[in-house]
Amino acid sequence: MTESTNIVLSGRLSAAADEEAAVTRNNHPSVPSSVPMDKSQALQENHKEPQGERTHEPHKKEKSVLQAKLTKLAIQIGYAGSTIAVLTVVILVTQFCVKTFVIDEKPWESKYASELVRHLIIGVTVLVVAVPEGLPLAVTLSLAYSVKKMMKDNNLVRHLDACETMGNATAICSDKTGTLTTNRMTVVNSYICEKLSKTTPKFSDIPQNVGNLLIQAIAINSAYTSRVMPSEEPTELPKQVGNKTECALLGFVQALNKNYQTIRDDMPEENFTRVYTFNSVRKSMSTVVPRQGGGYRLFCKGASEIIMKKCSFIYGRDGHLEKFTKEMQDRLVRQVIEPLACDGLRTISIAYRDFVPGKAQINEVHIESEPNWDDEEHIVANLTCIGVVGIEDPVRPEVPEAIRKCQRAGITVRMVTGDNINTARSIASKCGILKPGDDFLILEGKEFNRRIRDSSGEVQQHLLDKVWPKLRVLARSSPTDKYTLVKGIIDSKVNEAREVVAVTGDGTNDGPALKKADVGFAMGIAGTDVAKEASDIILTDDNFSSIVKAVLWGRNVYDSIAKFLQFQLTVNVVAVIVAFIGSCAVQDSPLKAVQMLWVNLIMDTLASLALATEMPTADLLLRKPYGRTKPLISRTMMKNILGQALYQLTVIFTLLFAGDKVLDIESGRHGESTGGPTQHFTIIFNSFVLMTLFNEINARKIHGQRNVFSGIFTNPIFYSIWIGTILAQIVIIEFGKSAFSTKGLDADQWLWCTFFGVGTLLWGQIITCVPTRKIPKILSKRHRREPIVETVSSVHETENIPIEPCKTISFSGASPYVLIPLSDSKYP
């Protein structure tokens, strides 16, 4: 592969083939232990890390965005509520003592103790109402409800807080195979004996010696657990079992009308001499088997640019064996491999080498005794190239739209793959990760590490900060590269708000990256147990579009809690002020302790059930993530809370001080009542509850929407609780009597109370007309739009290495193939 295509692409679109996982991950798992498998070496290489970097360090995820904000808010409300509760008790007790012992000059009697206890109970009730003890319940209910619903959207949530965290995600680092693509692989192009075929060639058109080598190499040098099985339905495609890339190659053998199983039966795994398993360092797999006639034969397959460098011979036109010169290799890369990769195909090269005891041909090696199989560098060398195949792994139809939704929602999607750089670029373009005119960066793992490490090999954050904001595709990457990228984005101080990163992974070595990420997604189908254990959410369908649904539900959790807070804080403000001022003005709270507890039940438990179970809407993906610096209570919410509190307090205090005269009823104010429950205070209590219930409908909208009834019937829990609460309130008013300190109301009085309740809906429309900017900034500190994607352009420019435009191959006319000679020699 030429250096220019192997290093970096910047600012332009093109394409190509071969993935790290394209070869195999489970090669020959059933080989008995007696056969040397080179497993220890494979494991060491799989887990090899750049010097000085510890990717397996224990990681404890910090508190989620919502948890941090709720903790801070709950503490602030608790302090305020405690202060007002203490003041209420102090004022009530002081007024009682002054009036009783100073003005009336009465001596202490034991009956006064109950009066003091009553004042203390009022203070405790104020504290109970003020402290948002329903907040944890609302959060838990919302998360539990969302997690249950997310199962239907193919998201198995393992850690509850991951659901909410996903709503604040600003970056997604996604694998390619099976997540962005269908993982249904098919060989669609092949280059054999200088013929590039756009369809499966006839086996008779391939020179017999080359054809036999080809099907043997595919059948033997692949996991015997990988199989292509006939489908149960004639109209369905054959079922692929095992590694999908190997299944594509086995399907190619079947398309040549050959049976790979017959070859496997003749060469059982017990007879294997050596297997060099696939790993992220080799990017290839090799199998050594006994050779017919004596000696050994090594079959090798893997990433084309890797295998090409190890080949010294190639079969040319009509099966002629040729020396594979550097010029021919460059021509093959330029005229075949790169164009196939630009079409989004993976290219897999297939090669072999013979070790013979007798006279050796030009492409064979003579041996006197069994070679040293541990010397892989010299064993897997001087190969003979049999051919190159292009494997198609189509982009999932729903993925481009899902990525567009992420981008609209302020989430940057990055592809981290083992594919070569051209294939990765092509797939990223088809998915919509790369767009013409965008300022983006595509790097290969090797170049990525060169840019972010100092001379000692240590990762430097300031160097990484120059790369990651523009980086959209990281190709030919290892699990260590993925971990380094994720850690670098999370630790970066480029943006004022820390990035919230989600990562997908399926391999054992993806564990550290999945743990380090704010939200780790493991593949439910292709993922290993280690990856699933390290993850927060398991995608049961391995589909990227399911991640978008997780974002939707995460944002819905955040908004559901915000709705609950908007409702609860309005009730808090009104109830606490009424109790406090009522105590000061009339030496008694207009809302009795048991009534406050009923309001608290409506405000906390029932409201959390009603508001925390709202279904998400598509509008949630039209805004950017809230981020860590934006306050939980926005200006719009603060406007609604203060506006509704003003209306309700005006109604309640008007009823408290003038309601008895306007409605021509007995006053319930202290000193004017004949004792027992009064209609006066009952009307105040009933009006307050009805205003609270109708305001619960207003609280369903937190972004200034006018239609507060929109979607109300999509949530049966909400309207069931709302209607049930209204019925319970009627029972309490009419039959509560001394237990609830209420007295029955007539129809006119009920109409007045209902009018005040409905008035909150009308008042809500007036509040919506008030410009949000009129709300003082002090009420919504640090409120600003966060720079999520926009900050990319402000990052230091990185050096860009120009590359040639990506080229594709044109098949002229009806010909199923084109001739691409690699040498200048002419054949007769």
Automatic annotation (TrEMBL):
Gene name per UniProt: ATP2B3
Pfam families linked to this entry: Cation_ATPase, Cation_ATPase_C, Hydrolase_3
Skewed-composition ranges (Basic and acidic residues): 45-63
Species, as recorded: Polyplax serrata (Common mouse louse)
Any one GO BP annotation for this protein: regulation of cytosolic calcium ion concentration
Protein name: Calcium-transporting ATPase
Disordered, as annotated region: 18-63
Entry's family note: Belongs to the cation transport ATPase (P-type) (TC 3.A.3) family.
EC number: 7.2.2.10
Keywords from the UniProt entry: ATP-binding, Calcium, Calcium transport, Ion transport, Magnesium, Membrane, Metal-binding, Nucleotide-binding, Translocase, Transmembrane, Transmembrane helix, Transport
Molecular-function annotations in GO: ATP binding; ATP hydrolysis activity; metal ion binding; P-type calcium transporter activity
Catalytic activity: Ca(2+)(in) + ATP + H2O = Ca(2+)(out) + ADP + phosphate + H(+)
Major subcellular location class: membrane
Compartments, as annotated in UniProt: Endomembrane system; Membrane
EC top class, as a word: translocase
PROSITE patterns attached to this UniProt entry: ATPASE_E1_E2
